[in-house]
């Protein structure tokens, strides 16, 4: 019995050490997951929510009237463009960093939003809110910068006021896409007057689906209630094919 106990003690100690190490590793993974969420997922979700909400209010709720009342100088157009460009910046970041870099659903839906703004086709002609992919990347970089934070060097976006100042100088001042987008927002009396509104509606539908997925994965929501989608493109509630599915069908 005494000999058996001598063998039992190191076995128990070894098992305890293994459990302690596993618990420590699990805690480190949880800490890293929280860090990545704070750095990339949270600001990306916020950018998604702000953009889809602005689009829906303009296209479905007559939001141009309240925006003109609040910003009689027409700067609501600048602010709306800022929300769009901020999405470009954070969507690039979340595709490169964080826990969703290999998530097919996130990749597909971010790609779908970017393609909506980038593709020229019937109903989506070249003009307002048409930013080809190189310009999307360039605009995203313009609004992103690094700062010192809790986790060291952290990504963040410049403020709307800084963005508004940059609109007065190159390269933003010289961008046809930027000028056309601002012009149609300022001139439109109603949503029907907004050239490129179909792009905005389609993108909003994709973003709403993306937010629903991310909120389910993260376990919290940025909106208490059910988000509505722009009616013209509610057919997009049908599942979107992934790249492998499209390739197989082809």
Descriptive account of the structure:
- The chain is mostly helical.
- The chain has one domain.
- The chain is 65% helix and 5% strand.
- Strands 1-2 form a two-stranded antiparallel ribbon.
- The longest helix is centred in the first third of the chain and has 59 residues, at 2-60.
- The protein starts with a helix and ends with a helix.
- Mean pLDDT is 85; it is low at 235-250.
Q: Give the percentage of residues in beta strands.
A: under 5%
Count all strands and give the number: 2
Tell me the helix content.
55-70%
Poorly predicted runs are 235-250
Number of domains: 1
Oligomer: single chain
Average pLDDT score: 85
The biggest beta sheet, please?
A: 2 strands, antiparallel
Q: Determine the number of helices (DSSP H or I, runs of at least 4 residues).
A: 9
Specify Rg, calculated over alpha carbons. 23 Å
- Spatial order of the strands forming the largest sheet: 1-2
């Amino acid at each position: 019995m005494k000999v058996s106990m001598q063998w039992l003690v190191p076995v128990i100690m070894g098992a305890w050490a293994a459990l302690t190490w596993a618990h420590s590793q699990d805690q480190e993974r949880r800490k890293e997951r929280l860090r990545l969420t704070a750095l990339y997922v949270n600001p990306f979700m916020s950018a998604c929510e702000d953009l889809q909400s602005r689009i829906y209010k303009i296209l479905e709720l007559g939001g141009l009237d309240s925006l003109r009342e609040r910003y009689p100088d027409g700067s609501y157009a600048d602010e709306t463009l800022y929300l769009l460009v901020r999405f470009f910046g954070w969507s690039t970041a979340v595709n490169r960093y964080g826990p969703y870099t290999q998530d097919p659903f996130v990749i597909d839906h971010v790609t779908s939003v970017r393609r909506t703004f980038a593709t020229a086709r019937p109903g989506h002609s070249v003009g307002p809110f048409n930013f080809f992919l190189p310009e999307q990347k360039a605009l995203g970089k313009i609004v992103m910068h690094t700062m010192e934070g809790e986790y060291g060097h952290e990504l963040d976006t410049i403020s709307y006021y800084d963005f508004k100042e940059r609109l007065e100088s190159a390269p933003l001042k010289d961008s046809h896409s930027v000028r056309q987008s601002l012009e149609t927002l300022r001139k439109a009396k109603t949503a029907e007057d907004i050239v490129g509104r179909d792009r905005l509606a389609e993108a909003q539908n994709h973003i709403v689906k993306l937010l629903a997925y991310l909120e389910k994965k993260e376990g919290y929501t940025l909106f208490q209630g059910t988000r509505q989608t722009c009616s013209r493109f509610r057919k997009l509630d049908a599942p979107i094919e992934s790249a492998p599915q499209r390739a197989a069908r082809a």
